């Protein structure tokens, strides 16, 4: 995997050139936003348009649109090779892939998951009447904190679903040893972690299976798509059946199943996207390095750093805002950025345990989740991807610097606007 940083990084010199004028911030009501068009965090990476359109033409010529078509097979083979895993079962999205994997593993009763994740992780369990039991997060990694798992285990617990949040792998060793001790099944929601490694091994090889997302907002995308990776032959057969209504040949259903199939046009996008993977990672990395320099030394603004020892996809730019040091809280900073058309997001605020139906089921869950409660209120995610240029990142850093350096004025202006 390339570690090259594009020549555009030379624009880094501008990053710390000095904060913009306070009055130039759109939040003060004066002037235009820094960006005339919204700068989204999830702007899709495109890959080679010509190649994609050629593939679409071939799909039309073949008149084979879905149901385990040749491009789906090719996509699965490419992922198997890239991840070094025995089986990849492509699906229509990661949520359905999670549901199928959970069902194929025969999880039931209660399953331990982090509260700090996208709601799909919890819903994939609840949808099947399995109770998600929320564990706290590790303050450094943002992943499930293994030491909080054991006290949540009851006689009804059947498994653990870890989530590699922002593509940083969970402490799989600690999770596995807890699971072994209590005879629990482990699988991972690896929606963010495609192309990442842990201790030299690619994500996709941990637990009994792992689920990737290839949603439009992910660094590799199929428009909508997902996949389960597993080294377990039996599980792979079962999931393939479940993905296609349980059909084992014409007119022969041998299993309860659903429709989890990936279409050919989605697989075409996936293949085109995979071919651009190195370029996309390089763009993400270039943006990450620009943010790193641009946000350096700002009180209370901590960019979550990626280690460069392992393979990383650099697809999320995650910042923790410590109000006690920045004199500005996360919500205020997001408001400042949004006024400039920088659509920063508060993922995964307020945590699954504070969303329905879980909030009603477990109104006091937050008491057991001190780190999730604290950090979900501090984290914001900033735009990156191929559609975000170095000069855009420089401008975003400049907005943040201006806001933090004038925190009191921003704070009182926003307070008056409430
Ligand atoms: N597990 C985890 C840990 C996940 O993070 C996710 C999904 C899943 C499971 C489930 O995977 P899938 O079933 O989706 O494959 C977005 C994505 O929709 C979601 O896939 C992703 N995680 C989550 C982190 O982000 P929203 O609700 O924030 O989406 P939305 O519509 O607000 O879009 C995000 C930003 O991207 C917006 O600023 C608009 C922009 N955007 C979006 C799309 C779709 C574009 O510029 N172009 C586009 O085509 O969930």
Can you put this structure into words, describing what you see?
With 418 residues, this protein is of the alpha/beta class. The chain contains 14 helices and twelve strands. The protein has a seven-stranded mixed beta sheet with strand order 1-9-8-5-4-2-3, sandwiched between helices. A hairpin with a 2-residue loop joins strand 6 and strand 7. Helix 2 (70-83) packs parallel to helix 7 (264-275), helix 3 packs across helix 4 (119-126) and helix 3 (94-104) packs across helix 6 (233-243). The structure holds ligand T4K. Ligand T4K is lined by residues 40-44, 93-95, 117-118, 120-121, 163, 189, 191-192, 213, 215-217, 226, 343, 347.
Short note summarizing the structure:
This protein has helices at about 50-60, 70-85, 95-105, 120-125, 170-180, 235-245, 265-275, 275-295, 325, 330-340, 360, 370-375, 390-405, 405-415, and strands at about 85-90, 110-115, 130-135, 155-165, 185-190, 195-200, 200, 210-215, 225-230, 300-305, 315-320, 380. The protein is an alpha/beta fold.
Would you list the SSEs in sequence order as H and E?
HHEHEHEEHEEEEEHHHEEHHHHEHH
- The end-to-end span amounts to 48 Å
Computed Rg: 22 Å
Class by alpha and beta content:
alpha/beta
Structural topology:
Layout: H1 49-62, H2 70-83, E1 87-91, H3 94-104, E2 110-114, H4 119-126, E3 131-135, E4 157-163, H5 172-182, E5 185-189, E6 197-198, E7 201-202, E8 210-213, E9 226-230, H6 233-243, H7 264-275, H8 277-295, E10 301-303, E11 317-321, H9 323-326, H10 330-339, H11 358-361, H12 370-376, E12 379-382, H13 390-405, H14 407-417
Parallel strand pairs: 2-3, 2-4, 4-5, 5-8
Antiparallel strand pairs: 1-9, 6-7, 8-9, 10-11, 11-12
Bound molecules: ligand T4K.
